Structure formats: structure tokens, C-alpha cells
């Protein structure tokens, strides 16, 4: 399927493909897309199938399907190799893509994500939550998630970020979000594949992240050969929005140090 997407920066620039998390949309990456585009990169930010402006009829969307959609979009845009980044579920999709489609990524960004499997309880909770949001919509779910998505400090000092995050979550299509939760519950364990990653990798996490704490990022960093770990102080699960200046600086430094120039 053809994903709705933004394509910023010069078409001749080094391509960067950024994958949003659940339950968000491509506007999640707007600060990074604008920052990198001004530096001369070509930045593509899609809405995943079932999110934002990308439709779906799926009742369960596996991470392999999301990965295949992204490769098809890259092929459509004639992007042979690209920097590939994802946050949370987006990071898991990145890990799936590099396993299923080797050779496409020239560098990786794994932000606030988790390589391992869910516990049986967490897996069942994904199924239960999928059924619940399919029946009742996103509003109550969004309000319950919000305090865990961003840090207490962010909520106190960045009402603009809180508003953006709330809007994305409340606006997420219930059917697409439910389908993704069901598929994500059945994802494989990405931990063994981390040692096969042979491109520069930035592992970044908010210091106050409740969903994927710093220990999860440290594990990915230890098992991924050419990786750099950055902890964004004071941020929760969405450091790219909560502390965009620090996140953008870490991203630019990583790309420059890795020789990935515009």
C-alpha cells in the first residue's frame, strides 16, 4: 500500500526515514524532520498503515507488514539505502526491517524501544487493550497513557508538547491502533539479531522513560556492535518532542561522527 508521508529537504540529500510509534502519526517526528532538512538531508516521515492518513482494513497488523510497507515506500521514492530511525514500536519495526530486508539501512536510530518479548501478562494486555479501544475509541486510553508517555517535568513546563501528544493519541484511528497492538503482541524476539547489525547505530532514551527504561536501551547498546548510547535527561518516552534540542544535537552528532553527511 502507499503510505501517506512527508518528504522534506533536497531530493539530492542523504535520505533519512523516520518511523513513528504507537499511537502516534508522522507529526511525531516534525522537529527532527525540519532540523535535518535544514541541514541538507532528505527526510521522509510516513504515517504507518492504520495511523494518521494511511488507511487499513487489517484486524491484526504484524511488524513484518509495517516493515514491508516502508520498503515499498522507499522503493517508490527510489531510496536504495537510507538512515532508518524509529521510536518505541517504530524502533521494533526498524529492527524487524533490518532482519527481513538486509542492506537497505546505512545507519540506525533506535529510540526508547525494547528488543525482547513481552511477558505473558503484557502480551495478553495488548490483546485486551486492542479489544477495548476497538470498542470504545481512543479518548480514555489516551488520557490514561499520557502521564506515562511524557515526564512529569515535561508536563509541568511544556504544555505545547503535552497538547501535541494528547492530540496524536486521541486522533489515532481506533481500528488501526487495535490491529497494531494485536500484531505487536506476536512479534519475535529481536535481541538475537542485534549482534548482526553492522551499521552505525544510535541508541537513545529518555532518563525518565517508564515504558522502555534506560536499562532496555543499555541492553540494546551492549549487544549492537557499532552503537552509541545517549540518555536524554529529564525526558520520558518521547525525548524527541520533550527535549527536541538535545535530541536533535545527539542525532546530528551521531550522523556526522558516522560519516553520514547530507
TrEMBL record:
Span of domain AB hydrolase-1:
15-243
Q: Which UniProt keywords apply?
A: Hydrolase
One Pfam family cited in the UniProt record for this chain: Abhydrolase_1
What's the name of the protein?
Answer: Hydrolase
Under InterPro entries, the record lists: AB_hydrolase_1, AB_hydrolase_fold, AB_hydrolase_sf, Epox_hydrolase-like
GO molecular function ontology, one term from the record: hydrolase activity
Amino acid at each position: 500500500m502507499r503510505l501517506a508521508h512527508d518528504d522534506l529537504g533536497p531530493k539530492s540529500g542523504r535520505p533519512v526515514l523516520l518511523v513513528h510509534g504507537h499511537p502516534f502519526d508522522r507529526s511525531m517526528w516534525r522537529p527532527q524532520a525540519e532540523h535535518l532538512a535544514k541541514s541538507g538531508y532528505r527526510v521522509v516521515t510516513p504515517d504507518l498503515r492504520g495511523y494518521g492518513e494511511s488507511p487499513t482494513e487489517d484486524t491484526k497488523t504484524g511488524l513484518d507488514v509495517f516493515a514491508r510497507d516502508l520498503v515499498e515506500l522507499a522503493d517508490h521514492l527510489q531510496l536504495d539505502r537510507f538512515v532508518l530511525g524509529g521510536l518505541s514500536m517504530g524502533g521494533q519495526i526498524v529492527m524487524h526491517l533490518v532482519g527481513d530486508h538486509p542492506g537497505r539501512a546505512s545507519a540506525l536510530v533506535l529510540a526508547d524501544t525494547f528488543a525482547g518479548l513481552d511477558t505473558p501478562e503484557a502480551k495478553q494486555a495488548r490483546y485486551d487493550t486492542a479489544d477495548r479501544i476497538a470498542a470504545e475509541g481512543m479518548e480514555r486510553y489516551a488520557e490514561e497513557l499520557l502521564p506515562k508517555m511524557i515526564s512529569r517535568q515535561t508536563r509541568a513546563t511544556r504544555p505545547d508538547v503535552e497538547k501535541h501528544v494528547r492530540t496524536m493519541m486521541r486522533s489515532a484511528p481506533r481500528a488501526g491502533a487495535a490491529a497494531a497492538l494485536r500484531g505487536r503482541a506476536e512479534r519475535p524476539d529481536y535481541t538475537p539479531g542485534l549482534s548482526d547489525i553492522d551499521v552505525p547505530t544510535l541508541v537513545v532514551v529518555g532518563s525518565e522513560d517508564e515504558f522502555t527504561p534506560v536499562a532496555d536501551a543499555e541492553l540494546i547498546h551492549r549487544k549492537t556492535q557499532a552503537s552509541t548510547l545517549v540518555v536524554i535527561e529529564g525526558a520520558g518516552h518521547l525525548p524527541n518532542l520533550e527535549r527536541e534540542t538535545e535530541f536533535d544535537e545527539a542525532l546530528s552528532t551521531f550522523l556526522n561522527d558516522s560519516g553520514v553527511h547530507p
